[in-house]
Each structure stands twice: as structure tokens, then as C-alpha cells.
Design brief:
This protein has 152 residues and is of the alpha+beta class. The protein has one domain. Helix content is 38%, strand content 19%. The protein has five helices and five strands; from the N terminus they run αβββββαααα. It has a five-stranded antiparallel beta sheet. A hairpin with a 5-residue loop joins β3 and β4. α4 packs antiparallel against α5. The two termini are 20 Å apart. The relative contact order is 0.14.
Length: 152
Amino acid sequence: MTLYTAQQVAVIDNAAARAALTSTGLPDTDAVSFRAAGTITVWADDPDYVVIGMWNLDEIPVVVHRADGTVFTAPPWSDEIDPLNASVRAFAESLAAVDGAKPLSRVRYGTNVSAGDQVYALLRAIDAATLADPYSFWQAVVDDIKNGLYVQ
């Protein structure tokens, strides 16, 4: 678990996001290619956000809106950010849920589609509103699982 100190999260205005990062933290998992940041920094592309980690071997920043605590991915090939979770706590719970569902393949679930359906159900129980967004990054992860791309 990557936990942060009060000083490290002081740059975040949202009290719930600060509390989640200092009490629960972010799971250290490779189930979905997320790596928590050692230091939380203001995102160079937009000072309203901080970077809490990277997705997919350091390609995609995971950012938190400093005021409201919502979590997004910021693909460098896009001008848009994609919704990830409504809160840092929901993001941490989502990472832990996907990690607990491993292996994410037909080996455990019979088919890759069943594995994806299982992960979708877990994520929906945590943050249904964000997952319902067709541009949600988690929706893309579920689709990748269904296509056999997460077979750990």
C-alpha cells in the first residue's frame, strides 16, 4: 500500500481525497498496470489537478481534481481527460477489487467475457455512475479483459 503524509497531500483541497490518501492509500498492484506516484505533484498540463500515479508503464497520468477529488486518466494522445472514479477512495477500492479478481482470464472464469463481466460487476458496485460513462477508463479496462488482454 502506498500511503502519503499530510504534507504530501497538502496540495489537494478536497478533504476526502486527502483522507483517503493518508489513511487508506493506494494499492500497490500490477493487476491493471497502475503504479502509484512516490510524490504527489501538480499536473504540469493543468494546475487544477495533481498526479497520483501512472497507468500502462508510465504512459498515462492518473490525476485528481484538487477541489472536488474526482479521478481521471489523461492520455497524452488526447486533448480530453477520461473519467476514472468519483473519488480517490473509490479508485483505491476499484484497484483492490480488480487485483482480487485475478487471474483475469478464462482460466478462472471460464471465458474472458465472463472475467470482464465479473470485473464490471465489482466496479459497478463501487462506482456505478462513473462506470456508466461510455468514456470511462474502467469501461476500456473491462473491454480489454473481455478481449483477453489481462490474463494475469
